[in-house]
Amino acid sequence: METLYKELKQYFDVDEFSVQKASLAFLRVPKSQLVSLLTHMKDIRGYTHLVMVTCVDYLEQDSFLLTYLLHNYSTHCDLGIQVSISRQNPVMDGIHHLWEQGRVYQRELFEMFGIDFPGSPDVHEPMILEGWQGPPPMRRDFDTKAYSEATYSHRPRDHKEPEEYMKQQLYPED
Amino acid sequence: MQSLYPPIVNGKAVYDLDSQKYIRVWQGPQHPGVTGNMSLELDICGDQVIKCNTHVGYLHRGFEKLMERRRYINCFPIVCRICVPEPDTNEYLFAAGMEELMGVQIPEKAMWLRALNLELSRLASFLMHLGGQSGAFGMGTVAQWTIAYRDYVLDLFEELTGARIYHMYMTPGGVRGDIPEGWIAHTHKVLDGASKLLDEIKHVMLNNAIFKQRAIGLGVITPEMVDHYGIVGPNARCAGLKRDVRKDNPYLIYDQLDFEVETETAGDAYSRTCIRWRETHQSIDLCRQILAKMPPSGAVHITLPNVLHLKIPAGQTYVRAESTRGEYGYFMVSDGSEFPRKVTVRGPSYSHAMALLEDLLVGVNIADVAGLMVSLHTYPPEIER
Fold it and tell me: How crowded is residue B18: how many other Cβ atoms within 10 Å of its Cβ?
């Protein structure tokens, strides 16, 4: 993996390389070079399988960290390519032209984190949260309690003690 | 003859639903031919599907969001609910991710017990799938046999772990307990019975003329599609690709077991059923191998500090295992606190049920929609986790 990193370093501004285990490493790339790096990995380096795309919300640093995990079926190695984007203007280039399931991940990221992918098919269509009115729910500043209190009304419950209640139902004369 | 398909303008098919040539029907969310709580919005012309939209979100419980607010040990009752028929893969991966970030090793006996549990859950899930597959083509008998037989496997789980569906048997640092007395004899009996049942299924289902007629040539996956759509597991193996996480990236003790990766070349629904039938046999064989090779005694878990106050060192990792549907993975990020920063579940159904199913369904007869959908073996909670 170190050799791969050294070779990639000649073409791309990759940094923060870290090896988690023998078959898994992570590296950071600037936002503008992500799609060209992914294309390079897919077409030349044999990292043909897009395992997943995910996002971690770093509220304290005011950024989203996107992770694109790629797998190479000939060396059985994984490479997590990470890109940090601003929380204020969460726009990212799409990868739906490289992998067909990329559009599904992008739809989910728009819905859950509010990250826009201009040009991605159906990216603004609701996927999981149909009819959702609030802010993107997977962001860390989303207050679940405040949202549910504002959205749903309290339903008063008619609470009965089971023992007493069953006694009254079964043996009313006692 | 007039073309069945509507004209395509700017990359989108243009048609008038009021013209009475095209109808929009919904398959699901309450439909016996749909796997789990999802629905398909089908636009049909005559009896052929011309467009499909998958709709999920009927059982969204926000698993990943819930996990961000809970301590690591409190996440175990949540992760097993991400996949109902096969919860053990989730438990194993969550525990394995924790152990990797903490840098601890589990005892050898615990590894064998985990592998045994994973194989038994694969067996139960495959049985459920074979029943669903034959039921989707209108042959409910096999479904009744397999669902009934799955209950015997669940009995084994109950005896071993105390629970039938959600076992929570694998905990960080090992497993909860050793094998009870007499359990191995019960297991051999159930495995022998399952093996016999599979032979009957072969006669009734795989050699059935109607089943063959409907399943052969349905929903063909070509080798070129596999990487493009992110297809894994039996769905990729039916296209002739030898890919199995247990062989490629061996975890637990799978490198000490003797098995071959099953492949087919046709890539259609029938070959997927054949692969799953053979993999059920493989699971039974692996269970027997594990029982024979397992060390008879030894520690089953290590002692951890108080798990309610467990702080995991900052880091990130991805762990994967082979479930019945293919590669299952957990991406875990820890920031050094008592709560996980982020846990992402990579379910194999994510790519199978959304992008792949929408494209495979085009041109399929509406009667075969259920059969095709079941043959991809998808579970919606993995999509809306």
Answer: 7
Nearest CA distance, B201 vs chain A (angstrom): 34
**CB of A145 within 8 Å of any CB in chain B?**
no
Paired sense of beta strands B48-55 and B39-45, if any: antiparallel
Q: CB atoms < 10 A from the CB of A43, how many? A: 11
Q: In this complex, which of B318, B350, B354 lies closest to A78 when CB atoms are compared?
A: B318
- ipTM metric: 0.90
> Which of the four CATH numbers 3.40.50.720, 3.30.460.80, 3.40.50.1000, 3.30.230.10 does domain A2-153 have?
3.30.460.80
**DSSP, res A24:** E
Domains of chain B (ranges plus CATH)? Answer: 8-55 (no CATH), 63-347 (1.10.645.10)
Distance separating alpha carbons of residues A56 and A171, to the nearest angstrom: 59
Distance from C-alpha of A140 to C-alpha of A164, rounded to nearest angstrom: 45
pLDDT value at residue A130: 84
What is the number of H-type helices and E-type strands within chain B?
Answer: 14, 10
Reported as a single tens digit per residue, the pLDDT across A10-51 is 999 998 899 999 999 999 999 999 999 999 999 999 999 999
Minimum-distance CB partner of B350 among A104, A126, A138: A104
Angstrom distance (rounded) from CA A158 to CA A156:
7
DSSP B202: I
